[in-house]
Design goal:
The chain is mainly beta and about 400 residues long. Helices cover about 5% and strands about 55% of the residues. A 6-stranded parallel barrel has the order 20-22-27-30-28-25. A 3-stranded antiparallel β-sheet has the order 9-10-19, with no helix packed on it. The radius of gyration is 21 Å and the shape is globular. It starts with 12 loop residues before the first strand and ends with a strand.
């Protein structure tokens, strides 16, 4: 398999965020939301790179990206707390040519095992109490048909989603050309990185730690419903490479590739040509509710009419270290790799476990799966093969 990734470059002139734009307050004492939004708009409209100075920017309103937004910091800290749920510090809708780098994005969220007052006025009347992660803010949220996204060298903490990218339009019109690298994302609620309905994706050299669980705000919120917590979550992706990431202390799954109905509820968004290699995933533990733990989980779903099945194909999982020796064990199963796809290669992975009676090294759900040179240490059951797995080769 050959992955072809083409990333367009846009030429910008440099422009520092000083008096010629608007010299925002970098002490953290004054709300800089309007000031920074003005700088983003002006820099994008004039095709200039926007550099933020060293210091602290305090933000209270979502910021909206434009085409050709280039934003880079220099030990710049952005502290933010939003009053609207499911918004992000940086938001974009069908935007092209984005580059965001060298910023420290600091949200206020933590995980709470006890119920708390819903922090968003819009939801508070209907759901006065919540449990789990204490905010619904995101670091970066990109929707629609975005193209040429480069996000690197960020530090993100205290948000529900670190980086969230989703094209909600159609399976034939995907977000294209995404590069996420050298980011540190930690102390997150639901996922560090989410990419849905996208193609030509590189996710590499990121450090992800402490993904703790979503906020549950039903009428009677329960801790067991704070069960979604993944390092990297992918759905409807093609031409994807995930490599050299370090992922640790995850409440559900390290890397997820999942199938799902598209917006018409008729056809599955396919996953195809996915390479997961040279990652280290450790301490995926104590899953809640109905969820199991896994280092890597690949599972397509059937469409409701049962017309098209298993549109996940050409999955390669190689040279990963999946180490759950020191995990805090819960009541659910723990998989090194759970895999269901039409055609898969799983080779030269190292899977280490705690040796309890719920550990499974590799679980083959269905499809044509080629297994070779995988090593298991202290795993109760090395390989489980369901009847739907065909032409299995184990060497």
């Amino acid at each position: 398999m050959i992955c072809l990734f083409i990333f367009m470059e846009v030429i910008f002139n440099n422009c520092y965020a000083k008096n010629n734009f608007a010299d925002c307050d970098y002490t953290g004492a004054v709300d800089s939301s309007i000031c920074l939004q003005n700088m983003i708009d002006l820099a994008a409209s004039t095709h200039k790179k926007l550099y933020l100075r060293e210091g602290i920017l305090k933000i209270s309103k979502p910021l909206f990206l434009k085409n050709d937004s280039y934003i880079s910091g220099n030990n710049t800290v952005i502290e933010f707390k939003l009053d609207k749920p499911e918004k992000a510090l940086f938001n974009g809708n069908s935007v092209n040519n984005l580059n965001i780098s060298k910023l420290n994005i600091i949200g206020y969220g933590i995980f709470s095992n006890e119920s708390f007052i819903m922090p968003y006025p819009k939801l508070n009347k209907q759901y006065p109490k919540a449990i789990g992660f204490t905010n619904l803010d995101m670091g970066i949220k990109l929707l629609g048909n975005c193209k040429n996204i480069n996000i690197n060298n960020l530090f993100i903490t205290g948000v529900e989603h670190g980086i969230f990218i989703k094209n909600v339009n159609s399976s034939n019109n995907k977000t294209t050309n995404i590069k996420l690298f050298n980011n540190i994302i930690k102390n997150i609620g639901k996922s560090a990185v989410t990419v849905i309905n996208s193609q030509n994706i590189i996710i590499k050299n990121n450090i992800i730690e402490n993904v703790l669980g979503n906020m549950d705000y039903n009428k009677l919120p329960k801790l067991e419903n704070s069960k979604f917590a993944d390092g990297i979550y992918l759905n409807g992706v093609t031409n994807l490479k995930i490599s050299n990431n370090k992922i640790s202390n995850i409440r559900r799954i390290g890397i997820v590739v999942e199938g799902q109905l598209n917006e018409s509820n008729l056809v599955l968004n396919p996953n195809d040509n996915v390479v997961i290699t040279n990652n280290k995933i450790s301490n995926f533990n104590k899953s809640r509710g109905t969820e199991n733990n896994a280092g890597i989980w690949v599972e397509p779903l059937n469409d409701k009419l049962n017309v098209i099945k298993y549109k996940t194909n050409h999955i390669t999982i190689s040279n990963n270290i999946i180490d759950n020796q020191n995990a805090q064990l819960g009541t659910h199963k723990q998989y090194g790799i759970f895999l269901g796809a039409l055609n898969s290669i799983v080779r030269k992975n190292i899977i280490l476990s705690s040796g309890n009676n719920k550990n499974i090294g590799i679980h083959c759900s269905f499809g044509n799966i080629y297994l070779r040179d995988n090593k298991f240490y202290n795993v109760l059951t090395d390989i489980v093969v369901e009847s739907g797995s065909r032409y299995l080769n184990i060497l």
